[in-house]
C-alpha cells in the first residue's frame, strides 16, 4: 500500500518507515503537519498514519482538513494521549483507528491489514500500481521497469530512486531530498552514494536511446525529463 506517515520523532519515524518498507509498503513521510497536508492533497495514498502532536498542524487538524478536501483514505492516529476522551475525539475527528503510544509494531501492522480489508474492491480510485513518465513504465506490484516496452534490470535501491524521480517527473529533486526519501538518511553521509546510483540508473535508462532522461541541474539536483529534446 501507498502510505503517508506523519511523525516528528526521528527515531520513531525511521523505525516505522523501515518496518513498513520491509512489509512491502511504499511510505512517504513528513514531520510537519502543514507539509503533510500539502502532500495528502497532491498525491494519492491508501492509508494515512498521523501522529497527533506534531509541529505546524496537529494530526487531527490535518485529517479534518484532508477530509474536507475530499480525501477518503483510511487514517490511523498515533498518540501518547491515551484517555477515553482523547480516543473518542480522534475517532470522531475522522480517524478509522487510534493507536496509543508506545505500541508494538506488530500491532500497527495488524491494524493496517484490517484497514486494507475495508477498502472497497471496486473503488473509483484504486491503489496505484503503475507509474508512467514519458516512455518509462514502472510496475509497483511486480517491481519491474520498462522503457519503450523493453525491460530494464534495476536493483532494489535503483528501483526506489527511479520511483521517486518518476513521481516528481519534470521537477527538480535535490540531493538532500534523495538522501531523505530514498535512503532514509536524516543527514549527509559525505559520500557519493547518490551520484553513483544516479549514474548507474541513467546508464541503464539511456541504453539504446539518445540524450539523458535523468538530467543534472547544476547547483540544484536532478530532474527526470519526459521530453528528451
UniProtKB/TrEMBL annotation:
Segments of the chain annotated as binding DNA: 128-226
GO cellular component, one term: cytosol
Domain OmpR/PhoB-type: 128-226
CDD domains (UniProt xref): trans_reg_C
One Pfam family it belongs to: Response_reg
Domain Response regulatory: 2-116
PROSITE patterns (alphabetical): OMPR_PHOB, RESPONSE_REGULATORY
Superkingdom of source: Bacteria
Residues bearing the modification 4-aspartylphosphate: 51
Keywords: DNA-binding, Phosphoprotein, Transcription, Transcription regulation, Two-component regulatory system
Molecular function, one GO term: phosphorelay response regulator activity
GO biological process terms on file: regulation of DNA-templated transcription
InterPro entries in alphabetical order: CheY-like_superfamily (IPR011006), OmpR/PhoB-type_DNA-bd (IPR001867), Sig_transdc_resp-reg_receiver (IPR001789), WalR-like (IPR039420), WH-like_DNA-bd_sf (IPR036388)
Stated name of the protein: Response regulator transcription factor
